[in-house]
Amino acid sequence: MNRIAFINVNIFDGTGADPYMGEILVEDNRITRVSKHGDSVNASGAHIIDGRGRFIMPGMTEAHTHFSWNDQPSLSAIQFMPPEEHILWCVRVAKRYLEMGFTSALGAAAAKPRLDVVLRNAINAGEFPGPRYLAGSQEITTLGGLGDNTLPHMPFRELNFGEVVSGPEEMRRAARMFIKYGVDQLKINLSGEYIAGIPAEVSPFSEEEIAMLAAEAKRAGKRVAAHARSSESVKQCVRHGLELVFHASFADEEALDMLEANKDKHFVAPGIGWLVSTLHHAEKWGITKEVATRMGYARELEVASDTLTKMHKRGIRILPGGDYGFAWMPHATNARDLEYFVKYIGMTPKEALLSATKLGGELMMQPDSIGQLAEGYYADIVLVDGNPLEDLKVLQDPEKISLVMKDGELIKSCYDMKAPEGAVHVAEKGNGPRRDEGVTKAVQATVH
């Protein structure tokens, strides 16, 4: 049995409790003991990692991931990457997320029909490192909707960013196709997007088309995610039971009332980083603040800040993530969302961390096994050189992510796991440390 003991660590356990000094014992891929306030775990025979007071927390969840978005400035540029290179891109990106402390992720949409499914299957098979992953479909859109990039002289669906449908029967065919491919959730674009030239407050799908998608998903036991910026699209999510609501910027009081009445069913991943970055960080790609303001993003950020603040006060579940993978918000900068949750939504730093940890376990449909540092949970663990509750920006610095463990396996570590001369062997609880002259059964890790 592989045993690792974290000692002298400041534990943020993801339950909502304040951090406390303690120790954590990992055996194989599970946390088997968490001690606090001077108690010790039984570290006999374990590799020992001395955190020296560092902050330790559960692995984070990214709730709105596009692994196949390849840090380009347009949907067309993302889509035109050939499939062979595209899956290799996804492999590399998955590792980057893991190394930044995101041990789980939900696929919001893939740029090609099977990219997410192939990626998930390969991660699960242990072929390469990546977060626990729920695979999404391509974006299902309608003629003229967000993701319909077809041209009059080139109406080839293979070159299109989204799967274009018109009418309930075409929706049925698309849903069944993606279900056949093995996705975990289906994705529909229920509203527009300014950068695509479609107002965010537009809601292009009919009730009959949405009802068909919901029915096919329910029949197959799948969830549905929706790009839903407009107020009407948020109401459509609630009416049709689409659990995963992305954006929700313009939700009015009626939409908020509907979400609150069903808050145990829905998750909201607003993607607020997209609004901030497009407004303030896209000038290099020709989108100055003035241009972004004309598009509508300044107004949307202002409205979304008010909407999401109200949503948070109502107890509706809001999680980080959304649309990272564009040129001006590249992959692995996702932890910015936590800073924005405090600045624009009024969360406390603790609430922001809980949105990425405890709520992440709920989003991933494993509330009793991921998202917390507790006995019986999977050993998805992040050790941070700094205190995110004092400065959330430390989670944006790869140098501050000292150690990442997923499923009991060390993925990234700045710790030297070799046994130095005279290594300390931690004996049975209560007996104190002793020195072994011969072969040690425990390894005292030292920080570089």
UniProtKB/TrEMBL annotation:
Q: Which residues form the Amidohydrolase-related domain?
A: 55-410
Keywords from the named record: Hydrolase
Q: Which PANTHER family match?
A: ALPHA-D-RIBOSE 1-METHYLPHOSPHONATE 5-TRIPHOSPHATE DIPHOSPHATASE
**Compositional bias (Basic and acidic residues):** 428-439
What are the boundaries of the region Disordered?
428-448
Q: What is this protein called?
A: Amidohydrolase family protein
Source organism, top-level taxon: Bacteria
InterPro entries named among the record's database cross-references: Amidohydro-rel, Metal-dep_hydrolase_composite, Metal_Hydrolase, Metallo-dep_Hydrolase, OTAase-like
UniProt-recorded Gene Ontology molecular function terms: hydrolase activity, acting on carbon-nitrogen (but not peptide) bonds
Stored Gene3D superfamilies: Metal-dependent hydrolases, Urease, subunit C, domain 1
Task: List the Pfam families.
Answer: Amidohydro_1
